[in-house]
Amino acid sequence: MITDSRGRRYNVEMQVANKRDMDKRARQYLFKLMEDGFLRRRQEYEELHAAYVIFILPFDPKGKGLKRYSFVYTAKEDPSVELNDGSEIIYLNTKGAKGKVKPGLDDLYRLIEGKPTSNGKFISRVKETINNYRRTEEWRKHVMNTEEVAEAAKQLGMEEGKKEGLITGVQNLISVLRDYGEDNQNILQQLKQKYGNTFSDKQLEDFLKQS
Length: 211
What we know:
211 residues; alpha/beta; 7 helices
């Protein structure tokens, strides 16, 4: 949870799996933010701060191709009438092509998708934060775990003795690395290291796109 200088509260997470209960998960997170922000004695309702749940998604959660889905309470009888309680649930879709987002956010989408980014101030800070994290002990343990999983996935495919088994190993590795929050660029790099002698770069890129 993050609180800014104006008291607004945020829960920002990356969801790597498109699960059926994601909307209810977002609602639960929003209610938790609201609960943590309950009024103290002698405070007025107008002092309740805004609360936002933001999910960064490497998939389209609603299938409409929007870069951003912003959900607020509206009247069923007239959706243009909003309930101004200061709460909002936002899905950021890195696969989206419709609508506009700020250049910094668009750069973040490109980074997650393994595409070239600008040298803007925001994305440079993000990359610096990532690089600093990769120097920590926590990151080293994470890398060791993913390497062990990668080797296990590869071994599983080899034991099956068929190309179909190797493909399954590739798919399993992609799935596991995404669960760890790896972006497509890092996943592709690990695929090339583990399966570069069996599949071409183009084939590995296609596996990544299809998964």
